[in-house]
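Bit of a strange request maybe. I'm writing a small parser for structure token strings and I need a real example to test against, not something I typed by hand. Could someone generate the tokens for this chain?
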Amino acid sequence: MWRAAAELAQAGQPGALATVARTRGSTPVPAGAKMLVGPDGWLAGSIGGGCVEAEVIAAALAAQGARRPAILTHHLNADLAGDVGLSCGGTVDVFVEPLVTDPAYVAALQAAAGAAPGIVRTATDWSHGPTKTFQPNARAARGAQAATITRDRRFVIERLLPAPRVLVFGAGHVGAAIAGAALAAGFRVVVVDDRPDFADPARFPPGIVVLAASPADALARGRLGPSDAVVVATRGHRHDAEILALVAASPAGYVGMLGSRRKKIVVTKALAGAGLPGNALARVRVPIGLPIGAITPEEIAVSVVAELVQWRRETL
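Reply from user aminoacidic:
Good idea to test on real output. This should exercise your parser:
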């Protein structure tokens, strides 16, 4: 979203960015949700649908013409929520800003599109020109509101953190399906397979990093952390065990292996015999995925990514 906004602004294309800047009570989307309104009514993202989104689109078009931002406040009482099909009854403030070619403004959008955590600060009054800055901040807190409006309503503050990363070991049919579903759900995705014909970027959607490498070589490229999830979906027990030996005791927040409970017993018994600590093996999830009766690769991918979303929402 940030990258698309930066490209439109830099090209001088008409557009506006809408951000849910503050919420109170029950609302359809959280603070920080975004919608980009581009040329000819082109849309990306969503700030909740229904009457709110329709009014925001109208405000975005007005902001494009006036080249000034605006804050819209919606009070979604129960009657209105029912009329438009929204399960909500709170208040939402939406900040709508036109995309402009100002170099500092474009630079802030481009910086926000990067992978570094940071704080975006946008002035709500552009009487003296647009003001938007990005400040790198490694301590941008997880769990805090992704966006807020300062008490004096002079600035919208956004806290940006990289999306959690999913490393999928195994680029077979199931691994590829999991990778695609995880990307669609908003994760950063890396696929690793030591077979070049399987680890072919042409087999995957744009945006997925594909590595033709051994597990050890792939893991040597970057440390695992609490916001990383490891999904082991290789072609056999031996390969699975090799990867678990490398990641079970790592700081990764999620470690799971495709397979049955019996497979877990066989693999973990072998690893325990090789000296891997029992507490590291106990945290490995097998089988992975929510129990929805999945059979096909695509169904399995849905169940696994649903569990990954649950992990992300409950722990990060």
